[in-house]
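Inputs:
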Amino acid sequence: MTRAPYLRLPKPRPGAQDAHESLPAFVAERLREAILAGTIPPGALLRQEDVAGRLGVSRPPVREALKQLETEGLAQYRPRRGYVVAALDPADIAEIFEIRALFEERIGQAAALHRTEEDLVALDAEILAMEALPAGTPEGGRAFGLHNRRFHDRIRAASGMRVMGELLGVLANRVERYIRLGGRLANSREQVNREHRDILAALRDGDGQRLGLLLRLHVHDAGARLLRSLKER
Amino acid sequence: MTRAPYLRLPKPRPGAQDAHESLPAFVAERLREAILAGTIPPGALLRQEDVAGRLGVSRPPVREALKQLETEGLAQYRPRRGYVVAALDPADIAEIFEIRALFEERIGQAAALHRTEEDLVALDAEILAMEALPAGTPEGGRAFGLHNRRFHDRIRAASGMRVMGELLGVLANRVERYIRLGGRLANSREQVNREHRDILAALRDGDGQRLGLLLRLHVHDAGARLLRSLKER
DNA sequence: GTCCAGCATTTTGAATTCAATTTTGCCATG
DNA sequence: CATGGCAAAATTGAATTCAAAATGCTGGAC
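Outputs:
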C-alpha cells in the first residue's frame, strides 16, 4: 500500500480563530451537528471507519470524539459493538425541561442581584432583533432561535452561575434534536416576545422573585409545547 | 527494540463480572479514584506516558480516559500542553450544593408519589445500619458514607428521575475530593440519623411537600458544613 | 551577572499496524 | 423449507511508530 501523507489540520494563521484546537474536537463538533440536525437518526450505528473516511482523519481521533459524545449523552456505547446515536425517552425530555425550569428560576434570582447596565442594553437589543424578524420564513425561525439563545445566555452569564450554565449547555444539546424535529414550537412568537419584555422589566427592577417565576414559566411553557407537539406523531 | 508482547486485559472468566469492559474505562476509573482520594493533587500534570506506564497500558486508551475525565469536570485540557487535574472554585462548590438541594427537593416530591413498600423496608435497613455504626473510627466513617449514599440513591431511584440521578452522580464526583479533604463533615452524625428518620416518615406518609423540604435542608446543611470547614484552612 | 537566543529533549498529536471479537452469509442437515 | 453451525469478512480494541510543538537547558553576548 502506498504511504499516505501525514495528514494534519490546515495550519491556522497566527491570529486565526476558526481553526479547531484538535482533531477530536473537530470530529466531535461535526458529529454533534449531524446528530442534532437529524442527518444521523437515533439508533444509527456510528462506524469508526466511515466517520474517519468522511472527515479525512484516522480512527483514533474519531474514537476520542465518540467517547466525548457518549458522556454528553448523544451517543451510546456497547463494548465490542460500537457506538450508536442515542434515542431519548419522552420521560427524559420532560425531565430535562423540568431541570431547565429549576435552573432558570434560580438563575433569575441571582441575575436580578448582579445585572449591570450593559446587560440591560444588550438584552434590549436582542429583543428588538427578535421583534423585527419576519414571521413565516425558515431563516427567520433560525435567527429567532439564535437571538433567543443569546438572550438567555446573557441572563445566565449575568447570574454568575457557571456550573448551571455548563449543565444547561449539555442538556440543551440533548433536546435540541427534538426541538428541531418538533417543528415550530415557537408558534406563538408574539407571546414569547411579550414574555421577554416582562423578563427584562423584572431584571431592570431587580425583582428576583418575579424574574425567577417568569423564567420558570417561560421554560415550562416551551417544554409543554414541545411535548404536546411530539405526542401528536 | 524488542517487540513487546501484545498486552491485553486479563481474560475474564465467562461469568466474571469484575473485569472492566474496556481499557479506557479501566484507566478512567483508576485515575478518578486517585484524583478523588487526593493522591494526585489539583493542578498536577497528567502525563500520558506516566499514566500508561503505571497502569501497564499504552497511550491511546489513556487519551480516551482523559477525554472522559475532562467532560466529567475532573481534568482540564489545554491544547498541546496536556491535561491537568482540575481545581474547583469555592463558588463552584457552593453552586454544586445548591444544585443538589434543588434536585433533591424535586426528587423528594416525586418519590413520595411512587415509593413502594420495598423501598420503605430497604431505607429502614440502611438507617438501622448507620445507627449501629461506631462513632469515632475511620472505617465507621467510610461505612457511614456508603450507607448514606445508598439511602439517597434508593430515594432517587424511587423517584424515577433518571437525568437528575445521572447529573447528581457527576456533581458528587466533583465535590467528593473536597468532602474527603474537609474531614469529618458528619460531625453531627446523630443529627443526620434523626433527619433520615424524619425523611423516611415523610416518605411513608406520602407527604411530598414535607419530604422535599426535608431533603433540601438536609443537603443544604451538608453543603454549609463543608464550606465552613473549607474556609477554616 | 543577567538576559536572550538557539538547540536538544521531552511530550503531545495522529496515523498505521496488528490482534481478537463479533457479525454475516453460506452450506449442510433435519 | 427452516434451522443450526461453521467459516470468512468486517469491525472494534489497542500497541507501535512517526511527526510536530512546547519546554528546558546551555552558551554567548551585552
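Remarks. Chain B is about 70% helix and 5% strand. Chain B touches chain A at residues 21-22, 24, 60, 63-64, 67-68, 71-73, 79, 89, 91-92, 95-96, 98-99, 102-103, 106, 160-164, 166-167, 171 (CB under 8 Å).
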